[in-house]
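Hey team,

Filing this mostly as a record. A colleague (T.K.) asked me to run one chain through the structure pipeline before their review meeting, and I want the input and output archived in the tracker in case anyone asks later how it was produced. No errors, nothing strange. Just documentation.

Input sequence:
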Amino acid sequence: MAVARAPELVIFDCDGVLVDSELLAARVGRRVLADLGCEVSLDEILERFVGASSEVYQAGVAEMLGRPLEPGWELPYRAWYAEAFRTELRAVPGIHESLALLSLPTCVASNSGHARIRESLHATGMLSHFDGRIFSAEDVERGKPEPDVYLWAAKRMGVAPADCVVVEDSVFGVRAARAAGMRVFAYAGLTSAERLAGERTMTFDRMTDLPGLIAAL
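Output structure:
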């Protein structure tokens, strides 16, 4: 990955990068769709929705069901997600070690809402590390794959987009970071390195490798 200068800011996605939540959410999502009358595989949910904004997710669900969604359709299912996160959420393996070794400023920019981000980081022992530097798609007009939340995070942190690196794990998130003009470290957890690879992007599959990769820029 050719670069002009060392980065000044590391922007972390949350789900799938800091907290190991994507598979949890996909399993609940499969139950939700089944309850709505649509049986789909876990792999299909992961491929279509990992890292998606709520708008993309709702449009996809409506397409899979073959009918429009009624306002408030998701409200009965919030407790399902809350229970899964309360009982099963864990930090991504190696992320605590990597955060301890990073010397650059860091922040979080996620498609999730502020409440969920904070709850997830608190449950996994990372809230104090990022408190005051958390940005959400709720803050901007469009979520990922649009670049808005990454550009907003860079602006609030006072760093030019070209001087930021983003740590992502989804196709939607990687597309958002590239569109923001940022370099990307794409963590191949649930999504294959082949699907994440591309311009200004370095893929990796062990979170403990991240500090060394950033230091090598």
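Quick notes for T.K.: The longest helix spans residues 22-35. The CA atoms of residues 110 and 136 lie 5 Å apart.
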